[in-house]
Amino acid sequence: MQTKKRYAHTSACRSNSSRCKSLSLLAALMRWLALLLLWCIFESAAWAACTGSSPTWTSTPDYASVSTCITNASRGDTVSVSAGAASWNTQLSLSKGVKLIGSGSGSTIITFTAALSPAINIVPDATAIANEEVIRLSGFTFDGTNTVTQFINVRGASPSGTKPWRYLIIDHNKFANQGGGTPDPAIYVLGGQTRGVIYLNIFDRCDMILRPHGANTFTEWTNSAYNNFSYGSADQLFFEDNTILWSSPYTNAGNTGMIQGEQGGRAVVRYNHWDPTNLSSQTDFSDTHGFQGFPGNGQTGEMIVEYYGNTLTAPSGPQIFQLFNHRGSQGMYHNNVFTGSSTPIISANQYPGGCNAAVGNGDGTLYNGEINNTYVFNNSVNGTISGMVVGPNNACGDVENTNWWNYNAACTSSSCSAGIGTGTTPPTGTCTTGVGYWVASTPTPTPSSAVIQSAHFYKCTSPNTWTLYYTPYTYPHPLRTGSSSSVFPPSNLAATVQ
Asked: How many other C-beta atoms are found inside a 10 Å radius of the C-beta of residue 54?
């Protein structure tokens, strides 16, 4: 009976070949789907992974895998992140000497899906500082989706430490779509002393760009490990060759696009390019904060800054009100070129509560938080050299040719009694103490690194005595090529022309 049924079924199948074919195709499809499901399960497990061993690790871009690799890595290791896109909603922390390297800003794309502040926290531990370990972040796009208020926080050596942390490297990244309206910086260096280099990044639709701070205490100002006030020194945080733009409309928070240094910070800002097109309202380019209401509820100022070789192009859109707002301490501002529809000013803008007597430093012999030893020359605003002028605040009574010096065409190599001269040969003539002279192959304003890096600044250190006082620090920064042995050469070297 069973045999008859079996043959009956076969006979029926033969009499309806299209039905048999459909059943066969359905069975094949089900087998294929089952295999596909198994493949997806195993492939998904293989895609999200941290593999390797010290000193080289490889991670997929998902947060769990990157975080696992960072945890597993030993000091000095490199974690390479493959191309791809991933969403993160948790903060990533780096505390030991590890290099986290993506496959390129156009290839490894991290999108933040939570309002993180910061999204990445870099806090070198005591061992990393003592052993001068490098922490590097390179080759990513970080998209803040208009919610992340700070992309990176960096906290360096403590105010009472014996040396700063010198090996921060952030390069070849794109930071995009920072949440506006705070205002907050894309990169916030605070709470300690940090040196290193931030270079060849793109900041697109970000709020404040960089905020280099210290720890906001007297301690770091009086600590001999930190209070090197020499121009041209490696003992700075360098920000070089970055591009800052707003590729689509962006609502300002008041300090959008600015670099604002204060509270014991220090920086060299060089060879960067800004295009403020698409900002909603007026902004400033930089703010060097001085002491203000300190001690008390106020803050200490930025220790020392240099700005040179930067270009700003603003053919339309909002005005740039202040090219440089210098509110205390020392600054070297030269060969920055602005072209645009506005006419920004350079301000000496010493706030109340920032005078040496007010901050418990008497005559400034221990350290000088007021505007002092500041030189402004070869800064071009729409083709005209622009000098520093007294801003809305001049609480300490600072004056030109005592606290700061501007370019002065009457200052020549044979005679200089005020301001700063420029030329192609070193000065040898009479001079008044404090004046300066810039010697370059092209002595007129230029952002060219080839010209600036081979130039020298002479200062009249006593009546009729010219001293080679300042040469811009090595460019590109040695950390960009992996060199660390030459990062901190002797400083305060001088040659005197009698």
From this structure: 12
